């Protein structure tokens, strides 16, 4: 995360925390809280989610998102959608209105449009900053540079985990994926157990980072499962990022919450924006590397 966008990230996280907290403080569910927190960040062009996302190699926005309810283990996910402003709302509709978990591309768009969601033009999601980033990434690729993802603007997926007054957990993750990705590529963010997972009996988790290694390790579920054998979320999150690093040389970050409200935040990237809100107060951070 370049220096000049640190404050925007801090601000975006703070706004998302408030939106989620408002739901919880008025007795709403964890599921609703994570949805509202993620919508705020999808609407904020700072992040790689919704409008302002990284572009595919052919200059489009393709979005992935998942939401999961730890109480019922119902989940909804979308992959490669191009005409939905808030993919987390689409994922939420799938969770409640379909017996299926995952919809992709036009099928996802048709499904939610059938339930009344307005579809938009893909161009409404594309901004100039991302056209420029894509041009730079493609110029570097043409010059033979390999690790575009790390050399470029990094990762900016958004996610939230929450615990409500009834003791239920939920998680949500939303992304535009990686810069210059091949059209049709799906990342970890929307894949159940990879970048998003919630089960009251283990934990709620959301990941960001280089999606392919995270997927191969099914990292979200890997971390949540450790909570069932007594690990605290702080340790489990750090171990998960350590595992990502040591096993596949991956990079990324994770937020992890258990049903007692204990949480872990870990990343092996130089920075990750995160925030925590509890009944006691609010904390927002960017640079503390806790992996
Ligand atoms: N994890 C996301 C993906 O690979 C990217 C990110 O976190 O920015 O699609």
How would you describe the overall organization of this protein?
By secondary structure, the protein is of the alpha+beta class. It has one domain (3-288): (Glycosyl)asparaginase (Glutamine Phosphoribosylpyrophosphate, subunit 1, domain 1), CATH 3.60.20. The chain has 9 helices and 11 strands. The protein has helices at 6-25, 30-42, 87-97, 105-114, 128-142, 148-151, 211-216, 219-228, 233-248; strands at residues 63-69, 75-81, 102-104, 158-163, 169-175, 196-198, 204-209, 252-257, 263-267, 274-277, 282-285. The strands form 3 sheets. It has a 5-stranded mixed β-sheet with strand order 3-2-1-5-4. Strands 6-7-8-9 form a 4-stranded antiparallel β-sheet, covered by helices on one side. It has a two-stranded antiparallel sheet with strand order 10-11. Helix 1 packs antiparallel against helix 2 and helix 8 (219-228) packs across helix 9 (233-248). Aspartic acid binds next to strand 7. Aspartic acid (ASP) binds at residues 48, 155-157, 175, 177-178, 187-189, 195, 208-209, 211.
Quaternary state reads: single chain
Low-confidence stretches: none
**Domain module tally:** 1
For this structure, what is the CATH homologous superfamily? Answer: (Glycosyl)asparaginase
Q: Kindly, what is the distance between the CA atoms of the first and last residues, rounded to a whole number of angstroms?
A: 17 Å
Rounded average pLDDT: 94
Rg, alpha carbons: 17 Å
Query: Which secondary-structure class do the elements indicate?
Result: alpha+beta
Q: How many beta-strand runs?
A: 11
Which fold name is given in CATH as the topology?
Answer: Glutamine Phosphoribosylpyrophosphate, subunit 1, domain 1
> What is the CATH class?
Alpha Beta
Overall form:
globular
Strand line-up in the sheet with most strands: 3-2-1-5-4
Hetero groups in this structure are: aspartic acid
Proportion of strand residues: 15-25%
H/E order of the elements? HHEEHEHHHEEEEHHHEEEE
